[in-house]
Amino acid sequence: MKMINKNHYLYLGCILLVFLTIACKTDKKQNTLTETEPQENHIIEVVTRGMDFQTADTLKSGWNTFAYKNLSDEVHFFLMDKLPSDSIAESDIKEDLLPPFDDGMKFLMEGKSDSAMAAFGKIPAWFNDVKRYGGTGLISPGKTAISSIHLKPGKYMMECYVKAANGEWHTSHGMWKFITVLDETTHFSPDEANHTISVSSTNGYVFEAQPKLGINKFKVEFIDQVPHEHLSGHDVNVIKYDASANIDSLVHWMNWMNPTGLRTPTPKGFTFLGGMNNCEAGKTGYFEVVLEPGNYLLISETPKPDEKGMLKTFVIEGN
Ligand SMILES: [Cu+2]
How many domains does the chain have? Predict the structure, then answer.
């Protein structure tokens, strides 16, 4: 879901999940951040098999790396929304937050924009104070997205607001989950990235590097964050495409306000490989992806990403 007010975006959506494996190893690199603490290889597994997020209920604060495995037959993502109050309960989500989004989308599908905006206007005021802490980009069925994000202590809602074939939000089908982030922190920091992408509403993606065959680690710097026409912010998705793909159809699909946008089925010829979901201005996230020979693009889940510099293509050559 997306945000509805001036300075907010809103996302609701998908879910499911999982658990967590913590392995510790001694840091041999004399990292100043971990002089006395062991470095953790801290991977949080998140799994979606249907319309859910199977994952831990609590996490440590600080840097966490997520492996989001999509074992369902639809594309999803997850986004971490930090709630403005720990007292926000399941009833607040189900009875107050989701219905305005459901009603608004239904009106948009019926071509009734005014009614849609009136419905979105009923989104509870606290939603304007939600902060985005990143997550994965869109990920195709059978694929795993790897992203690292930095979490502060508090109560979060993990969500996916892709839409089902009938146009209903995944969020309303169960793809959301409360997660508590503890004061206790991880002792982990992401590996050095191979490439840095700076993202802003003014310059789009600033990305000069040439990705290579194999594993590529990307650092995403959010220079700013603003609500776009769809009342949500910008992010980064990495997508492989083949000869049957029509990039214009993808650009159209990336706007959830279009009745067929962000909705199953995805445009043909594209394979979604993750990325970095919305973060607040000044924040940083990381993602990694294994690139095989082929054509790829980086694109934001916003209206008109091509006109905003938030669509970049690149080619990975074979050996
Ligand atoms: Cu979903």
Answer: 2
Cα 78 from Cα 69, distance rounded (Å): 11
CA of 165 to the centre of ligand 1 (A): 11
| Residue 187, strand partner residues | none
pLDDT, tens digit, 9 for 90 and up, residues 75-130: 999 999 999 999 999 999 999 999 999 999 999 999 999 999 999 999 999 999 99
Range of the domain at 298: 195-316
How far is ligand 1, taken at its centre, from the CA of residue 30, in Å?
Answer: 41
- Domain termination residue (choose one: 157, 185, 213): 185
Residue 262, domain member (yes or no): yes
Rounding to the nearest 10 degrees, give the CA dihedral for residues 234, 75, 230, 170. Answer: -130
Residue 246, amino acid:
N
Assign residue 103 the CATH number of its domain: 2.60.40.420
Taking a 5 Å cut-off on Cβ, the residues next to ion ligand 1 are: 14, 76, 160, 162, 170, 175
Phi, psi of 34 (to 5 degrees): -130, 35
150-201 pLDDT, tens digit each: 999 999 999 999 999 999 999 999 999 999 999 999 998 998 899 999 999 9
What pTM did the predictor assign?
0.87
